[in-house]
């Protein structure tokens, strides 16, 4: 079956896509390898000997020294130092804890659901990508009652165009505590640590236990001291990663992952008790670093569909409504599609919506398939096959099945973005230019029409506009900037389609 029978607009979209898809078959394995390799280009801290993107070097080694946490040692793990490590989330040199934690959660979910499809080598690389993040998150949560949520002053950083290896901008450390709450970023951090504990459960039990224990304590802190971190730290985090959606969804999200990781009754009871209070019924067709409602409903629905938690049936109903809102041609569809068939939502970095929503489509498709269920959408129904095909069409668009015949993954295919909005990629490497490049000296590279000298392999950029046009220019950051939270859900999608094709 296909979505063709749902409505005429769907027929038009899918006929167009089918004609494009017929022209090319994709190497999902190559795309998977590159999507994971991208995370090595985003690493902060002391790079390991097996670093594969050699144009990157050590950076921000003294992060945390201004906060007096340079001597922090995380017990039970070989992790010492201050707040070095972690990821730069995008094309700048700030470490934002909120999107980093969401990236970690989605990388972990990709491995949990699709790790068996990755093969041994890429599964290990994906796990290493998770660990690079969790090692940092353990440092950021090592002080009880405190979560360090950002390193770097965004205004200072965004005023310079310089390599992370050359940074001389402010590395201010920002934290939340009982007097300055941040249930959103703390709840997401708890979710990330809990999800990662599942990834390491059989691979490294001791590390897994540490992650779960820390997730529990961070969640307790988030729930006890409720508030949005964009109220406590507005000048530092807004408008960059301001919490527009409220902190309630992150509390449910954290509880859902803690229940999945620990199987403790208290988290199940927390979800049931707080379902209405924390607005679980919101079926906003958003899913990303700021809005977790759709992810909560899909994640919890797996247990319902498996017949293990009928008392959570409302979450499945919410998930069904969310899925129907994505399907083109359905009467209550709330998502726009470009003429070429790409999911499009107004705002910056559209591809973050494409990969996250497609991940939920595929995950829910698998849950439905195993339960032999369909999604009721008004007087019609959508099958697991239909959801999977819609997710695949989004992935194929990213890889080159689009009006411009351009891959939006750097390094994949014969044509891809060459002038991405990314400091390290656009400036000469340390090898090519050993001398320090100061703050404003990088501006000429930013404005240059030349391709970036360093290829950030696997980076997926913000993508084309609603008309399928793409400028491939650094100043157009909404279109040309990659982010870790674009790639994280894509890892799971690519793993599945590498193993299964259609």
TrEMBL record:
Record GO terms (molecular function): cellulase activity
Secretion signal, residue range per the UniProt entry: 1-22
InterPro entries with a match to the protein in the record: 6-hairpin_glycosidase_sf, 6hp_glycosidase-like_sf, Glyco_hydro_9, Glyco_hydro_9_Asp/Glu_AS, Glyco_hydro_9_His_AS
The protein's name: Endoglucanase
Entry-linked PROSITE patterns: GH9_2, GH9_3
Organism encoding this protein: Stephania yunnanensis
Recorded family membership: Belongs to the glycosyl hydrolase 9 (cellulase E) family.
The Glycoside hydrolase family domain, residue ranges: 28-494
């Amino acid at each position: 079956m296909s979505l063709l029978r749902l409505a005429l607009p769907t027929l038009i979209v899918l006929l167009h896509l089918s004609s494009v898809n017929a022209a090319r078959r994709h190497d999902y394995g190559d795309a998977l390898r590159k999507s994971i390799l991208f995370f090595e280009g985003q690493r902060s801290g002391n790079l390991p000997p097996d670093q594969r993107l050699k144009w990157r070097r050590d950076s921000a080694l003294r992060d945390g020294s201004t906060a007096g946490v340079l001597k922090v040692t995380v017990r039970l793990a070989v992790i010492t130092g201050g707040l070095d490590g972690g990821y730069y989330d995008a094309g700048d040199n700030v470490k934002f804890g909120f999107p980093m934690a969401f990236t970690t959660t989605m990388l972990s979910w990709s491995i949990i659901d699709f790790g068996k499809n990755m093969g041994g080598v890429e599964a290990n690389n994906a796990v290493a990508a998770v660990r690079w993040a969790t090692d940092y998150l353990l440092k950021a949560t090592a002080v009880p009652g405190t979560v360090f949520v950002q390193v770097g002053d965004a205004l200072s950083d965004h005023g310079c165009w310089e390599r992370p290896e050359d940074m001389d901008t402010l590395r201010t450390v920002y934290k939340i505590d009982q007097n300055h709450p941040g249930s959103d970023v703390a709840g997401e951090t708890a979710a990330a640590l809990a999800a990662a504990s599942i990834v390491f459960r059989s691979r490294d039990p001791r590390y897994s236990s540490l992650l779960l224990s820390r997730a529990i304590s961070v969640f307790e802190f988030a729930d006890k001291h409720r508030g949005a971190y964009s109220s406590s730290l507005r000048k530092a985090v807004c408008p960059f990663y301001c919490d527009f959606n409220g902190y309630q969804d992150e509390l449910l999200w954290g509880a859902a992952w803690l229940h999945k990781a620990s199987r403790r009754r208290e988290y199940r009871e927390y979800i049931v008790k707080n379902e209405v209070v924390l607005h679980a019924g919101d079926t906003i067709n958003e899913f990303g670093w700021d809005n977790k409602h759709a992810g909560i409903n899909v994640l919890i629905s797996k247990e319902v569909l498996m017949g293990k938690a009928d008392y959570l049936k409302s979450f499945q109903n919410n998930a069904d409504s969310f899925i129907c809102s994505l399907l083109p041609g359905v009467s209550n569809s709330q998502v726009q599609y470009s003429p070429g068939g790409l999911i499009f939502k107004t705002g910056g970095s559209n591809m973050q919506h494409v990969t996250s929503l497609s991940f939920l489509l595929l995950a829910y498709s698998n849950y439905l398939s195993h339960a032999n269920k369909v999604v009721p959408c008004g007087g019609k129904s959508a099958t697991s096959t239909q959801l999977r095909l819609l997710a695949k069409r989004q992935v194929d668009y990213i890889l080159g099945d689009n009006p411009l015949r351009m891959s939006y993954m750097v390094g994949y295919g014969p044509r891809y973005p060459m002038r991405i909005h990314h400091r390290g990629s656009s400036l000469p490497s340390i090898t090519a230019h050993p001398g320090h490049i100061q703050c404003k000296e990088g501006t000429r590279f930013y404005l240059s029409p030349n391709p970036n000298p360093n290829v950030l392999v696997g980076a997926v950029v913000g993508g084309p506009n609603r008309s399928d046009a793409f400028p491939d220019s650094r100043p157009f950051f909404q279109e040309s900037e990659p982010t870790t939270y674009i790639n994280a859900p894509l890892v799971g999608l690519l793993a599945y389609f590498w193993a299964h094709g259609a």
